[in-house]
Structure prediction request, 310 residues.
Amino acid sequence: MPDFLSDAGAHPARQIAHDWQNHLARDRRRSPHTVRAYGATAHRLIDFLAEHLGGPVDGAALTGLQSADLRAYLAKRRTAGIGNASAARELSALRNFLGFAGTGASAEAGVPRLKGPKVPRNVPRPVSPQEAVALAEEVGEDASAEWIAARDFAILLLLYGSGLRVGEALGLTGGALPLGETLSVTGKRAKTRIVPLLPQVRAAIDRYVALSPWGGARSEPLFRGARGGPLNGEMVRRVVRRARGRLGLSDRTTPHALRHSFATHLLGRGADLRALQELLGHASLSSTQIYTEVDMAHLLDVYRNAHPRA
Prediction:
């Protein structure tokens, strides 16, 4: 990553962006990935404004921006090929950044109002319980060692059985051992929640721990890579891509789809939305309500496939 602070003298806004990133990480508890992505967006805006305004970019330049300036920035980003979803994310990041530049506390009241691009809301399609188990069993086919096969099987069962995000599963440490009926999980913004642990999931993790050559030290990652280091989420996605190809499953069968399936199947069996919100670690109920749409989509699929008049 370029050393943006090297030209902070030419563009004092670089320091503001740096302070904002520290604020996001320290005070807002945003993930390292989010902090990097938001910071890159802020520095892209500064680069654009240096050319757009024809002079040094400082705090006054940031707080003096108009809607037309942001539209010009987004138009340039469009020429770079970003889509609606990426443009909407960048606009959200910039509103927060400009609010911080104006008040030092991410207040966005004085930020120019600009309507973001419409982003189609894709309703996630659940994986059936049979497909989830088949996928978990299939990932071991590529494993170079028995303990790696057991590891991948345990991770996928955990995603489906407890509704974890991939990052949450890989963030577990040996401190979770010995396993009980529940598991403490740290999710987004360092929020901790308790999720149930099914006997089958517990047995799969116990088997992996017993086979692993790396042990289960309390401060070390529970799920290790082949050389003993932390397991990368991309490795999990890669083995799932290979396994779903062999099983003939849809490209939408991803590790995250297993979390969607957890939510959809609970909702279909009468789970309360508020309880589901807590299990998934959603900050707001609106994030959970999409699963009512998922369930309806599933019902419509059943209807179309089974009803003689459909």
User: Anything to note?
Assistant: The beta strands are 182-186, 192-196. The first helix runs from residue 13 to 26. DSSP finds 14 helices and two strands in the chain.
